[in-house]
Write a structure and sequence with these properties.
With about 35 residues, the chain is mostly loops. The protein has no helices and no strands.
Length: about 35
């Protein structure tokens, strides 16, 4: 698990600057565990 504060939003390699990348977001619903 990670949060967006520590996530690097840059491709690690193998992508040209004009390539389109598909990103997925996953979230849960319900009460917070704490």
């Amino acid at each position: 698990m990670w949060d967006n504060r520590s996530l690097n939003h840059q491709a690690c390699g193998g992508y040209a600057m004009d390539d389109i990348r598909l990103l997925h977001r996953t979230s849960t619903i319900g009460d917070k565990p704490f």
